[in-house]
Write a structure and sequence with these properties.
Two copies of one chain form a homodimer.
Chain A lengths: L13 E2 L5 E2 L3 H15 L6 H6 L5 H10 L3 H10 L2 E2 L14 E2 L5 E6 L8 H13 L4 E4 L6 H10 L5 E3 L1 H7 L9 H14 L3 E4 L21 H13 L4 H4 L1 H11 L2 E4 L14 H19 L4 E5 L8 H11 L5 E4 L11 H15 L3 E3 L12 H21 L7 H11 L3 H6 L4 H11 L20 H16 L7 H11 L1
Parallel strand pairs in A: 5-6, 5-12, 6-7, 7-8, 8-9, 9-10, 10-11, 11-12
Antiparallel strand pairs in A: 1-2, 3-4
């Protein structure tokens, strides 16, 4: 099987598509670190804690190799808070990865069942598909059935960090939203942290005083966590219990090195509601909570919207950087129009590419099924491909080193009519080959200097090669030599 | 059949999905205009010619109604050259439309066979699909079989302007590229103009002195017209015969009111080649040719790339406006990465949305089959939907009046769980409904306050409505009333 294959699936060992070695001994690294904690009594296991002590952990070194940046840069970014390495000490199957503006733009895939659809086998298939096509992290948003069992299965099979929204499991354990409380919540996060969840979305920034700000919105509160907390607060006339007990939560995070993904409970749910007072009021609070978490050396990223028209996308990043001191920005989409249910992987890939270019560190995918139903395996794949495109386009536009190499290699293969290389270097080789072969299936055409679009007499690249001959003969001008880049890129896909 | 249905298909009469009346008497307007020409001896039939004489034609009035702008604004924009109305006097089936920065962003669909695939029936089905889902213009790029017959059928069935690249038919009439000449070319454009083609892509800006500039490119010349002209010039060591005989071509354009679509023969074919010397040298020449055409009151738009990384997209528009005096910019994509053959409707919709926001007037779609084969009917549909999304997102970001109404209406329907309205207001109602019904097919669920994504206990909008009740009771705050917008938008889709 060709494809992206950035990850071996399941056991976390072996070579992968990016050409680096998967760590075989994460469990050993952690044993060593625990022994050290035993000795010193310092049980803060967070990467930020080590970074701030000046230590380069195995995870940091691994990430540096993967990103082709220096380990010291990784350490200093983690220490500052502008990069996170979500790596729960109990998720030993993990290949560590980094989220931050100094590293490549990442993508997350949401999977998980609902009370109405799907089961553990289907969710594991979605996990496999997501990882195969290049998801950098996966969130398990299950809300139905045996949530802990599904999560256990996902964690034990996942080489990528797993995120959850613990509020969902908490709610599943009570009858009504009003019955939620901090003790139950702490119990849930302790259990999930122990299982190995790498980051938690926590909606601690939705404060009771912000609730009236959503009245003027068309779509009110569309974040599930945000809406749950708002309903709890309005029912009890009390402040958000996650905000009130933030330090207690932080203690659990530090012990297992779970990273905060501070949820944007008031993100806009349509373009009309984008960048409003409610959204930015919460963002300001997320900034305060970031600084609070950093006091305990706990890693933080910040979640962002949602639905935002193109002219307001840059502002989203600027505000986040300003209010949250550059903590990595993890955004859902954003969708740049609301009129295309069934195609929201596209409406949102536009916004995602743009916000990635402006500095978002991770893009949470949206599938074609968004707003309509729970995604199935095909929807997961379609969402992933759209977001690989968005993140890669962002890396190119930000001029991240080497980001354009794969483009240059595939373009060279295209120009030289090397169809097999063109397929191999593409995001989805099987689909590319299938579309080509739909009209010209014979092997003969894999070396043909045309395709069915134009046929031999009307192929521009065919003529262009004659123009190259003219340029060489008349002007002594040679084409650029891309042999090395093509060879390197092909090696990464084999 | 619901859907976009902006156009009745074929006869050019009746109501359509945008709520305006299709002209029943375009043939009569033209008879009247010809009688006037008989009287005065002025046979320049171009909309620009009338506009510059201060006349508001029926086409201008019609377009003004459609765009909800004043007829005088349309006239003055057409007179200036910043808006065109491609409307050949022999294309009587046409519903006139405008391309320019003062009107809504438009999209074009390329259809047409190749020597290897497709026939007239299939091309007519593609035309129908393209127009049904909202193509504003269609280009017939046929290069195989009986080209004039296919074009005749397309013209006679098309309510939208039809564009062609006359060089293709010219080449089909000779054995080798070297055999092309201006007399043959003039014969072809005269025949096509007489049939009613509304705009011609003409690659008159690829000059012989620019040929060496492409040597350093990875993908050389990827425009078919550009590559043909380059090969002709290098074979003959002569200047581009379209450039040399530009005024003779212009005469034909004026007589039938065919608009120039000045082709970008040197557009970049990969992100590495974007914004290079070759591209901008040609663009400067296109600017000179624009001013030359305008001397004869002939309408002009300028074609643009291609493949461009996100950080260079705004520059493309800025240069075009500067070098071509604001003639409408008609761009292909651009693709923001090269690594996703099979998904280039997405790689390019990202660039298209952005360039539309920055001021491109029309976006030429790219289908999933780009670089791989001739698009079929499904590819045409997928391309159109991606580009309706891009153009609409551009209209929203440019704050074009009323552009967001449909978004607001669908968002309101979504928030109030009016599933049927949500489907009806979407770009592709059948697909949206199908995805929803995949898991919850019963009619009962069309009024359900949840979908299979979250189920009833985890639906944010469900909880949010309770928060609305709190805001109303405790703070006296009411939700915005969208009844009128929803009613208007629903009426447009009925």
């Amino acid at each position: 099987m060709s494809g992206n294959g950035q990850h071996t699936h399941g056991n976390g060992a072996g070579a992968n598509g990016n050409g680096y070695k998967v760590p075989t001994g994460r469990a050993e690294w952690i044993v060593k670190r625990k022994a050290e904690a035993e000795r010193t009594g310092d049980w803060n296991m967070s990467q930020m804690h080590f970074a701030r002590k000046g230590l380069i952990t195995e995870e940091m070194a691994f990430v540096a190799q993967k990103e082709k940046i220096s380990a010291e840069l990784v350490r200093s970014e983690v220490a500052k808070g502008t990069m996170i390495i979500p790596a729960n000490i109990n998720h030993v199957e993990l290949e560590p990865m980094a989220i931050g503006v100094e590293s490549l733009c990442k993508i997350n895939a949401n999977i998980g069942n609902s009370a109405l659809v799907s089961n553990v086998d289907e969710e594991l298939r979605k996990l496999h598909t997501a990882v195969h096509f290049g998801a950098d992290t996966v969130m398990d948003l299950s809300t139905g059935g045996d949530i802990p069992m599904i999560r256990e299965q996902i964690l034990r099979h996942s080489p990528v960090p797993i995120g959850t929204v613990p509020l969902y499991e908490a709610l599943s354990r009570v009858k009504r939203v009003e019955d939620l409380n901090i003790d139950l919540y702490l119990e849930v996060i302790e259990e999930q942290a122990q299982q190995g969840v790498d980051y938690f979305t926590i909606h601690a920034g939705v404060l009771i005083q912000y609730v009236p700000l959503v009245a003027k919105r068309i779509t009110g509160i569309v974040s599930r966590g945000g809406a749950i907390m708002a309903q709890w607060m309005t029912a009890h006339h009390k402040q958000n219990f996650l905000y009130e007990n933030f330090d207690r939560i932080t203690k659990v995070m530090a012990k297992y090195d779970v990273s905060y993904s501070l949820g944007d409970g008031l993100r806009p749910g349509c373009v009309a509601d984008a960048s409003d007072e409610a959204q930015f009021a919460e963002l300001k609070t997320l900034g305060e909570l970031t600084r609070q978490a950093w006091k305990s050396d706990v890693q933080v990223m910040i979640e962002g919207p949602g639905h935002v028209p193109m002219d307001k996308i840059k502002e989203q990043v600027d505000k986040e950087v300003e209010l949250c001191d550059g903590a990595p920005f993890y955004v859902l989409g954003p969708l740049v129009t609301d009129i295309a249910p069934g195609y929201d992987h596209i409406t949102s890939a536009i916004g995602a590419a743009m916000i990635g270019w402006h500095g978002a560190a991770m893009l949470c995918y949206v599938t074609p099924k968004e707003h309509l139903g729970l995604p199935n395996e095909k929807d997961v794949k379609d969402g992933i491909i759209a977001y690989k495109i968005a993140a890669h386009a962002a890396d190119i536009a930000r001029h991240r080193p080497g980001a354009r190499d794969r483009d240059d290699a595939i373009s060279h293969a295209r120009y030289t009519f090397d169809w097999d290389k063109q397929f191999a270097l593409s995001l989805d080789p099987d689909t590319a080959r299938g579309m080509h072969d739909e009209t010209l299936p014979d092997d003969y055409y894999k070396e043909a200097a045309f395709c069915s679009m134009c046929g031999p007499k009307f192929c521009s690249m065919n003529w262009s090669s004659k123009v190259d001959e003219f340029n060489a003969k008349e002007h002594g001008l040679k084409k650029p030599d891309l042999t090395q880049i093509v060879t390197e890129q092909m090696a990464l896909r084999s």
